Each structure stands twice: as C-alpha cells, then as structure tokens.
Amino acid sequence: MEILVCVKRVPDTSENEIQLNAAGSDIERDELVYSINEPDNYAVEEALQIVGRVGGKVTVVTVGNEDDEEVLRREMAMGANHGVLISDDTFAGSDGRGIAAILKRFVEQGSYDLILTGVQAEAGAAEVGGMLAAMLDYPFASLVSAIEVIDGNKLKISREIEGGNKEISEIDLPCVLSIQTGINDPRYVGMRGIRAVASVPIATYGVSDLGLDPNSVGAKAAKVQRIDYFVPTVGKGAEILEGSREENIDKVLELVAAKGGLK
Amino acid sequence: MVASTQAAAQLGSWLAPGYALFLCIHFLGVGSFAYIVMRRMVPLVRAQSDLRFDHPLERLGRVGKFWLGQWKHPRYKVAGTVHILFFAGFILLAMRAFTVLILGTSPDFVMPGMRGELGHVYEVVTDYAATVVFLCMIFAIVRRVVFKPARYEVPSKFGKAHKADAVFLLALIAILMLADSLFEAAKAAGQMQAGQIAHFSAAYSLPWLLKTVFVSASLSSIGQFCFAGYLLHEITFYFLLCYRPFGIQFHVETSLFNVYFSKLDREVLKPVRWDVSEENLDQLTSFGVKTFEDFTWKHMLDFYSCADCGRCSDNCPANAAGRPLSPRFLTIKARDYAFQHYPMFGPTGNGKALVGGIYSEDEIWSCTTCGACEEECPLLIEYIDKIVDLRRGLVDEGRVPQSLQKPLKALESRGNPYGKMEKKRSDWINAKDFQQTCRVKTLDKNGADTLYFVDSITSYDERMHSIGRATAKILEHIGENFGILGAAEKDSGHEVRRFGEELLFISLRDQNAEAIRASGVQKIVTADPHALNALKHDYKNVPPVEHISQVIARGVKAGKVKFNPIEGDKVYTYHDPCYLGRHNQIYDDPREVLDAIPGLRRVEMKRSRDRSFCCGGGGLMLFYEPKEEERIGVKRVRMAAEAGANVIVTACPFCMANIEDAIKVAGLEGKMTAIDIAELAEQQMVREIPPQTKSTFEMQAECVAGR
After folding, report:
1. Strands A154-161 and A203-205
2. SS3 state at B475
3. Span B451-493, pLDDT tens digits
4. CB distance A187–B398 less than 8 Å?
5. Residues B20-29: what's their mean pLDDT?
6. DSSP state letter for B407
7. What's residue B200's pLDDT?
8. Fewer CB within 10 Å, N or C, chain B?
9. Omega into B112 within 30° of 0, i.e. cis?
10. Where in B503-544 does DSSP place strands (E)?
11. CA B168 → CA B229, B328, B560, distances in Å?
C-alpha cells in the first residue's frame, strides 16, 4: 500500500512559552523551538504500522521551506521511505484551501492508496484533510482512532464520537483520513536515527513542478485572512470547594459524574 | 617408609578389581566436562568484546579479597558464615580430592611434598574440613527445606521453584564428603588391623567416627567399604563436575574467573562497544543489546556465575515496590536462554530479540540504577551496564515509553527535560529577596575560580530553587569566588545516558564541557549527586568536582562554617542518595555536617550507607510511569518512620522530590518532613562571627555539650 502522510512543522507547545507579539498579529516566534505537529506524528506511525502489516511504502510531505526539512527527516528516521518538501515563494500566505490545492496537485502526480493527515495542527483549523479529499473527490473520515486493512481496496476504521463512543465504518480506497492522537504509541526517534538520514536527499517541488498557476495559491489567492490575535480575558475564577477532605472528595465525584466523566 | 609401602599394597589389592572401571570413569568424567565447558564457551566466543585483560595485579588483589577472602559474604550473617566455612573446606579439600582420584589407579601416589609430617597434618586438617563441609550441607538443606528463607522463593511469573535442584546439589556435596570419609576411614581401619602404627587421627571428625565403626569389622569387609567409598567418591565427583554447568553451582568453576575479570571502575558506564571508539559510533549498524549475542562475553560469564542466592533482589528497590524487575531473574532468565539456545548438542543461537521474549520492556525501564544489587553480589555480577545496554537497544528500535519521549525530545531541543526556555535556567538567582542577600554571577562575562553546576531540576523546579540558593549562600559564606553557567548550562545528561540515549548524552556532555572549559574555572561544586557522578565519571577533561556536602564538611573542619544550635525536639535521619553514597562513596561528609550542628539528634535507618534504599530514582525516572504496587519512596519514608525519625535529610534534589511526594502519599504529612543538607546547613549557619564575647563562649560550650 502506498501511503502519503501530510505533515507540518509547528512550535512545540510543551517546550515554548507562547506569547503574542507586540502588534498582536502573530505569536512571538523568537526563541521558539519547533517540532512535528503531534497528531501528524501519530499519522506517520500509523502509516508505518499499516505498511509493516500489508507491505508498501510511506511518503511524508510538507508544504513549507527548507527549515521544514527537519521534520521530514525526523519522520524518515522513524521509518518513512521518502520525504518531499513542497516549497515556493509564491506559496507564502496560503490559507487552508491553498495548502489543500497545492497538496492535491502533488497527490495527482503520484499514485497513493491512502492519504493521512493529523487531526489538526497548531492553528486548530482541522481543514486541510477534508478539503484535500473534496478536491480529489476521495472519501474522507476525520478523528480516526483505529485502522484495519480489510482487503486491497477497503479499510475498516474506528472514529471517536461524542461521549467517548466509537463508530466503526468501512471506507473505500483511495481515501483521506485525519488521524487522532492516541491511535498508537509512536516510536521514539533518537539522535542516532536522525543522523542516519541526515544526508538522504529530499525531493523538492516548486510551483512549476506541480504545474500550478501562481495566482491560485499564496496570500493573493487566500480567501481567509487573519486580522487579529488576542488573549481572551480571564473569566470568573474556578469553583473552590471549601470543606473537609471527605466532603470535597464527595463533591468532586458528584461534579465529575454530573459532567458525564464517570460511568 | 615400609609402613606406607604396605599400606599402598593393601589399598592396591582392594582397589585392583576396579582398576579398569575407575580409569573409564576418569576418562568419561574429564572428557564430558571438557566437552561441556567447550559448549558453554560457544556463546562467549560469539559475544561482544570486553576489555578485561588489563591491570593483572589489581585483578589478582580482587581475587584475594572477593574470592579467596569472601569479602561480601558476611553481609548476610547466616548464609555468609556457612558459605565461608564450606568455601574454606573446598579450598583445603581440593588437593585431597585429586589425590583420592589418582589413588584408584596408582595406590602408592602421594602429592609432592606430602610424604612426611606435612602430609599427616594435611590429612588431619582435611578430615575436619570434610566434616565441616558435610555439616554445612546438612545445615543448608535443613535451612532450604524447613526454614525457607523468603529470598530463595521464585515468584510464579519467573517460573518454577529452584529448591529441588538446590537441595539435590547440596545433597550431592554431602554424599561426596561422606564417600571421601568412608574411603579415608576404611583405609585407616585397614592399616590399624594390619598392625601398623596409626598416626594421629582427627578425633570426632567424620572419617574418625567411621573408622571406629570399621575397626572391628573383618579386613575383607573393610576392603569392600574402601572400594565402595572410592567408587562413590569418583562417581559423585565427576557427576557434580559435569552437572554443575547446568545450574546454580556452575559458579564453583566460574567464580574465580568472574571475580578476576570483574569491572574495576564500577562508576564508569560501559561504552556502547568496547571495540568502537566514540568517534566511530556512527558506523555501527546497531546499538546496545537486542539479542543474546549482543552481550559481552563477561556479561555472559556473569549469567553462568550467578549462584541464585537472591541477595540482589532482596536489596532491589524496584523489586521491593513490586515493579516487574528482579535483578536475580534478569540473570537467571538470560542463563536459561543460554542453556536453551546453546545446548550440548545440535544447532546454537536463534537471534531473537530478548526484550519481548524473555524480558518485558517495563522490566528494563524499571531499574533506577541505584546499584544496590551490585553492591551486594558476592560474585561481583554487573547489572547496571546490562540494563543500560538493553535500554540502548530499545532506544535504537524506538521502543521508548511515551512518558519518556517528551522529556527526551525536550532535552534535545532545549537542554532540559521540562522543555523550558534556556534563558530561564538562571531565573532562580533573580528572586528579589535572594538577590538582596546573595548575588550569583553568571560566567558568560565574568570569571570565577569555582563553577556551581546547578543542573536542570534545581534550575527549573521551583521547590528545588531553595537548594540552589542555599548552596550559593554557603559558597559565598565560605568565601568561594564562584558563578554559574546560566543559559549555557545544559542538563548533565546523567540519566539520558543511563536511559540508553548515548548520542544525546554525548551532545549534552560536549556542550557542557565546552562551556565549562570556556569559563576558565578550576573546580566545580554541585548539590546534585547525579550531576556530580556525570561530571566525575562520564565527562572527561573537566576540572575536579565536589558535592556541596564535602565543601560544607571541609568548612566545618576548617572552622569556616559554624552552626547555631538546633531548636525543637525533632529526630533527624540521613538518607544516602545512591549517586552520592554507593556510586561515589561519600557517606561520612554529610553525617559529619549533621553531627556538627549542636543539639541535632540523629538516628540511622536500618538501610543506610552502602545498603541505602533508593528514593525511587532521579532524572528521567521522575517522568517514567512504572507499574508498581507501592512507590519506592513511600517504602523509604516508612523506613525513616520506623527508625524513629521525623525529619529526613537528603543531599539530592531528586531524593527531595521523591521523598516529599512519598510523605504525602504515605499520609505522613505534618508528622514527617524532608530537608536538603544544603538547606539545613544554610539555615543553621552562624552568619557573622562576632568578637569573642562571653555569649560566644557560652554558645561554644553548648555546642560541645550538645555533642
């Protein structure tokens, strides 16, 4: 099975203090450390596990610039067979639809049975996977938490739905799936693995390689523009329980149960 | 001379009928043993290299101390004493056993130099030795069968009980001693009946008792006893020789070599491969131990040498807390694997992964590398290097628990496991109230004689900031010109290395070493024993490093540090951090500091000094979520309570984290507290030495009285 995983390099939320810049137009990006978007990492692991079971190859692709090679190499150190960087100055400022359009052209140049994305990236839009599927006219499923290959052209997938319930579906290949974290335990990538792929060539595609009209992508073509960033004002404080330890425990249990947390 | 010739003739006539049989058994026994040993050597030859052929004199010294001197044995009083007794017996009896074997085919054989009085003395001594060994075996069998010491039990998850085999082997030795005594007694009784002058015999020894029984029997039946004794001795001897390599008594043969080749510098972790330099690590296709053949030959010899005495696991904190690790079975399982896959006949090896086969991942991650097992092992078997090698294999295959992946990644990108920003590493020196009393400089622009290496937990964990501040205040008080590296400091990488991520460790070490050398300091002080251990043993070409407790102790001795009397009626106990105590033998300095505080009441926990019980593990172990029945730290806190203490003094920020947590989990909040030795020393330190007034004299008098 040929699997394509679309990945993104993002500021690592666990290793940064995210603050708005003075203009309020973006986050402060000095001194940030970046890593692969966490759900994308689960998607790569899932692709590797599928290939491990049924054979095939895994390609990781990202739309960005040479800094983003770092995450491609990390995923190749995990075991992905190929890394592809789609990079062009004209892509700058693309909105989600723009990114999906770029990826669509790349997908059309290859032959992939399955396309995976992480459920969402740091911007929280969770839009590229769905749009890519629509543009390709492929079936799409989001929040996928288990994948089983039934035969050469079908998958059985599990999706998380409201209240922690699971929904099991069959989906025809080729398709696009957005992968939920927790679907697997991604393998560790050590320094040694990264060094081993440090000089493996990474294919780079520009706007002309993909036969894209420069006017259809980038800031000019973007139909969604970010106009502001702000930190919401802090609402009313948390409820402080005052009572003996036993009373508080009872109260907490009651509250958690009321919110559907205990069954 | 005539008498001995007669005696030899008598013996010869008794044994002559068995001459051909004895010779057959000799050849069969020696041949089988040679074949068995050869087969046992097969995996060792395929194993990884291990440099153990250096420093022969030092190694011989260790043989004298740990093998011949049985150094570790008295740590377990009963078992240790019994072992010392029968070990001494075996050593004494070795020559006699060979002499007896040879007599079967050469009745007039005498060991060189044993013809005269010396021979008689040796006979008497060995008569008693055989008796002592016999009694020790009976005692050991009774102990195994009736008293059943808990540490010999085999938990069901580790397979079948070993008792039957152990008792069988003990019984065989008892039979060997009996056979030897039977032969000696019959020989002596025969000489007496033949009217020869019996030389002094060992009264009340086993041969003596048997002789008094035989002496009234007919000469022909004595001859038959002599023959039977010889045959039983020969069969038992060779059976034991050939059976021991299949179980727990193989150490009889291997222990000498295991001790000779034991690790000389225990503190220094094994390199990834002995035959590959650090610069060439990139050329390796695989890291660490994945299959059995990835172990070094010495580590395999360790497996063969384990006596199954259970002392390692008896002291292992992970085992005590119900984690899925028992050092004893780490070894036994590997030995069983070797026996199964390197059998006496047929094909050898299967190349399957050990973790996922005989070991579980959790088992390998459960070790805190505290070193209690290694401290205890009478045979000097190594565990930490094997655990680290197995972890290196897991890391190489990406099999790292999710809970450890984030901190490892953060160490790679930020130089600390918390993922906090580099510039915040020195935030602890900038707190206003601290800055007013103590100014700590960073060494990026300033120079200093001494570097205070803070390390990650003290830099970033708010609870530990007070350990850092106390350390700085003490250094300032004793007049050290010191500073910190600040943002240039990275995690020491101590646990990174012990968790198997060697290349990440090398990267952290190189960044630190470069920053340290660039700072131009002459010495390093740290309050973190893990950093101490890393800087001292894992780093090379950095200035000498000391723990703050050593600095304080020296300050006390030099009169630079004086303490105010302690108030209240608290009882203190000192918890030895593993990497300060066992790994660096710093036991006394912290105790001297505590005892220099007037009025401080200190008790020792049962498990202290080199038998100290780990707090639960430092560094990355704080992030690991082990499967356990009870936290290791909770067990430790209970030990302190048992000793009657209500303040636990530690000398390590990780111990502090674990113990403070454990106090809460154990429900001892309000009844027990923990304090770092630097915090306590700083709190009690006499700030300014006033001119010698009456009150100072009074105080000094109190100090003396308090001690």
Report:
1. unpaired
2. helix
3. 999 999 999 999 999 999 999 999 999 999 999 999 999 999 9
4. yes
5. 95
6. H
7. 60
8. N
9. no
10. 523-526
11. 20, 21, 64
Rg (CA), chain B: 31
**Chain A residues lying within 8 Å of B409, measured CB to CB:** 12, 15, 35
Q: What is the H or E stretch that residue A233 is in?
A: none
First to last CA, chain A: 40
Bigger pLDDT: A237 vs A116: A116
**Residues written for chain B:** 707
pLDDT by residue (tens digit) across B616-646? 998 899 999 999 999 999 999 999 999 999 9
User: What does the pLDDT read at residue A5?
Assistant: 98
Q: Is B541 exposed, middle or buried (0-12, 13-18, 19+ CB in 10 A)?
A: exposed
- What ranges make up the beta strands (E) of B566-705? 571-574, 601-603, 647-650, 673-676
Please state, in angstroms and rounded to a whole number, the distance separating the CA atoms of residues A225 and A227: 6
Q: Mean of the pLDDT values across residues B562-574? A: 95
Helix (H) or strand (E) holding B106: none
- Alpha carbon distances (Å) from B372 to B312, B546, B612: 7, 23, 8
Task: Give Cβ neighbours of residue A123 (< 8 Å, ≥ 6 apart).
Answer: none
Q: Which of B395, B410, B421 is the closest to A17 by Cβ? A: B421
Contact between B602 and B595 (Cβ < 8 Å): yes
> pLDDT tier at B411 (50, 70, 90 boundaries)?
very high
Percentage of chain B with pLDDT > 70?
A: 96
> Does B503 touch chain A if contact means CB atoms closer than 8 Å?
yes
Whole-angstrom Cα Rg for chain A:
21
pTM reported for the whole predicted model: 0.91
Distances (CA, A) of B260 to A23, B95, B269, B377, B380: 71, 22, 19, 14, 10
pLDDT mean over B611-620: 94
pLDDT digits (tens, 9 = 90+) for B250-273: 999 999 999 999 999 988 999 999
pLDDT of residue B707: 40
Angle CA B612–B616–B622, to nearest 5? 145
Report DSSP letters for B4-19, one per residue.
HHHHHHHHHHHHGGGH
In chain A, the residue whose alpha carbon lies closest to the alpha carbon of B398 is: A188
Q: Cβ contact (<8 Å) for B398 and A78?
A: yes
Which of B405, B422, B423 lies nearest to residue A188, judging by beta carbons? B405
Min distance A208 CA to chain B CA atoms (Å): 35
Are residues B399 and A192, on separate chains, in Cβ contact within 8 Å? no
CB contact under 8 A, B503 and A12: no
Q: Is the complex ipTM more than 0.95? A: no
Percent of chain A with pLDDT over 70: 99
DSSP 3-state assignment of B119? Answer: helix
> Cβ neighbours of residue B448 under 8 Å, at least 6 residues apart?
B441, B481, B482, B483, B519, B521
What are B559's strand-pairing partners? none
Q: Which of B287, B499, B288 is closest to B401 using CA atoms? A: B499
CA B551 to chain centre: 28
B216 inside 8 A of chain A by CB: no
Chain A interface residues facing chain B, Cβ-Cβ under 8 Å? 12, 14-17, 31, 33, 35, 78, 185-193, 195
How many secondary structure helices (H) and strands (E) does chain B include? 29, 9
Q: What single-letter DSSP state applies at residue B598?
A: T
**What does the alpha-carbon distance between residue B338 and residue B330 come to, in Å, rounded to a whole number?**
13
**Which token pair is B532?**
């101490």
* pLDDT above 90 (res B362): yes
How many CB pairs lie under 8 A apart between chains A and B? 61
Q: How far is CA B52 from CA A248, B63, B261, in A?
A: 62, 14, 6
Q: Mutation target for A interface from B287, B405, B423, B425: give the one with most A CBs within 10 A.
A: B405
CA A5 to chain centroid, in Å, comes to 9
- In this structure, what DSSP letter does residue B620 have? G
Q: How many residues does chain A have?
A: 263
